[in-house]
Each structure stands twice: as structure tokens, then as C-alpha cells.
Inverse folding.
């Protein structure tokens, strides 16, 4: 084996190689900036947009990625990390506290729900396992939209409320500092909204993709990834994904996710907010904003030249 001290030129070359390692993927910056501006201009209504595209180490391209944006259900990715980390030793246990929380009609997690929905919540979540609550909160498979959001409220309540959950998220990683849970899902937004910057949401996805979530063991990380996995993408394969949508002001759409790509992950975040529905209904404006979010996501991904041999 060569000793670097005896071969200083070789040691220097190795150091330079490490310091100048190319990103895992390349982005056509001119193309993405041109196409993003055209899409935003073509929307017609004024839109606040924060965008981030990168790998597990750094951003490849971003636009207003540090601005605070409404996070809608995309904030649940950070919630899931804290939920599974807290219960790492018992993801399939069914805590008795769930039933008490679901039955508490005075708890702020559930007071804004009508009685029929509270009955549905109690039926679907009172005896669920930690893992099942996490899956309901993220994927919403087999449950109504109300239960999907109530699952996040159950998680938040079980972790001592929005402020305490936010403190946990911030303690996990300094890069998560722009994530703020201020209200329960579907509660009024005028007293404080759930917000994040695109960069902070991307940081959570980077840690999930890169396998370096502080304080989270391999088995728990695998469980998080399993819940996050959505429909596979034809080009990029496995897809860990979380979106968000709100049709109250500001109308909000979020698309966020990552593709593991055999160890060279690709991460994206699109966050949009529109302060007024204009001449259309809120639902119509929301659907239109949703189409814009998907179009932005797609053009961002289309701009990426994936390093050969990653899949």
C-alpha cells in the first residue's frame, strides 16, 4: 500500500479529487430557469413559489428556497420522523392512549370536527398501531380525508401539541429549523399556519434518502421509507413522496419527494401559494394551482441528467 507521506503528489491529487467531486446529477440551469419563469407567468394569477432540486448532499438548483411557505400536509414528513423515532421500539404496538385522545371531544386536535367525523376517527384510529397511524397520516390509504388529517392530529397531540412537536423537529437537525407546526390539521389558519421553507423540507427528504437522520436507527429509517413510498416513477423508479393541498386562503399546493436511485438520491420540493382565488371558486383555483405544481415538478425532473450507472 502506498504511504501518502512518501508520495506527496499522489496525496495532493487524492485530496483535490475528494474536494472537487462532481455532483451525482447535473441540471440544465438555463433551461430550468427559463421554463420555470414561463410556467409561472402563464399561470395568470400571482403566485408565491419556492422550489428546490438537489441530491442528498446539496442543492443543484433552487428558487426562493429559504422563504417561509404554507406546508399543508407536506409537513407530515417531519411529523412521521418524530413519531416513528419516539416509538422505534414498538411500531406495531397499539397504545391505549389513542382511544382516550380520540374520545376527548374537548381536545383541540378534534374539536373542529363534526360529530360524525369524530365517530369515524374513533373507529379507525382508537385501536390502530403506531405504524398504522403513521401510514394513515402520510398515505391516507383506506381512510377518508378527515381521518387522514386526524391521524396527523393524533400524532401531534400524542407528542404534546404543535409547539412541542416543532421543538422536537428543530432538535433533530439544525437544517429543519424553518419547519413550524402551529395548528392542528384542518383547524383555522388565521391564528398561525404550518409552514416550512422548501430548503427545510428538502433537508428532511435528504436525510431520509441519505440514511443520516440523527437519532434514527436503520430499522426505523426503513419503516419511514416504507410509509413514504408512493407510486414508482417510470424514469426514476422508487419514489418516496408527500404532497399537500389546501383550498382556504392562501390556496396552497406542495409536491415533495425523493428518488433513491441506488445510492445517489434525487430530491425535489415545489411549494406554491396563491392569496386569492380571483374570479373562480377556491376549488377551481386550487385544482389549477395543483396542475401548476405538477408541471413545475415535472420540468424540474426533466432538466436533470442522471449520472449513468445509478440504476
Amino acid at each position: 500500500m502506498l504511504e501518502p507521506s512518501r508520495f506527496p503528489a499522489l496525496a495532493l491529487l487524492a485530496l483535490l479529487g475528494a474536494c472537487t467531486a462532481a455532483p451525482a446529477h447535473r441540471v440544465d440551469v438555463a433551461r430550468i430557469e427559463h421554463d420555470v419563469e414561463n410556467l409561472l407567468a402563464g399561470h395568470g394569477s400571482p403566485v408565491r413559489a419556492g422550489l428546490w432540486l438537489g441530491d442528498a448532499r446539496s442543492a443543484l438548483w433552487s428558487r426562493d428556497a429559504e422563504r417561509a411557505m404554507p406546508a399543508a400536509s407536506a409537513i407530515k414528513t417531519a411529523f412521521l420522523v418524530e413519531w416513528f423515532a419516539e416509538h422505534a421500539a414498538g411500531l406495531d404496538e397499539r397504545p391505549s392512549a389513542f382511544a382516550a385522545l380520540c374520545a376527548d371531544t374537548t381536545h383541540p386536535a378534534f374539536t373542529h370536527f363534526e360529530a360524525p367525523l369524530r365517530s369515524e376517527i374513533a373507529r379507525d384510529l382508537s385501536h390502530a398501531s403506531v405504524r398504522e397511524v403513521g401510514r394513515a397520516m402520510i398515505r391516507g390509504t383506506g381512510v377518508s380525508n378527515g381521518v387522514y388529517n386526524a391521524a396527523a392530529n393524533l400524532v401531534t397531540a400524542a407528542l404534546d401539541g404543535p409547539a412541542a412537536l416543532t421543538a422536537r423537529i428543530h432538535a433533530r437537525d439544525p437544517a429543519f429549523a424553518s419547519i413550524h407546526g402551529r395548528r392542528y390539521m384542518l383547524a383555522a389558519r388565521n391564528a398561525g399556519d404550518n409552514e416550512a421553507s422548501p430548503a427545510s423540507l428538502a433537508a428532511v427528504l435528504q436525510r431520509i434518502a441519505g440514511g443520516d437522520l440523527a437519532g434514527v436507527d436503520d430499522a426505523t429509517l426503513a419503516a419511514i421509507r416504507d410509509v413514504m413510498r408512493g407510486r414508482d416513477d417510470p424514469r426514476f423508479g422508487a419514489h418516496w413522496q408527500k404532497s399537500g393541498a389546501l383550498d382556504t386562503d392562501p390556496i396552497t399546493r406542495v409536491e415533495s419527494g425523493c428518488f433513491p436511485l441506488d445510492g445517489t438520491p434525487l430530491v425535489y420540493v415545489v411549494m406554491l401559494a396563491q392569496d386569492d382565488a380571483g374570479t373562480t371558486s377556491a376549488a377551481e383555483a386550487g385544482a389549477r394551482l395543483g396542475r401548476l405544481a405538477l408541471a413545475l415538478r415535472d420540468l424540474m425532473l426533466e432538466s436533470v441528467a442522471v449520472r449513468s450507472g445509478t440504476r
About this structure: The two ends are 32 Å apart (CA to CA).
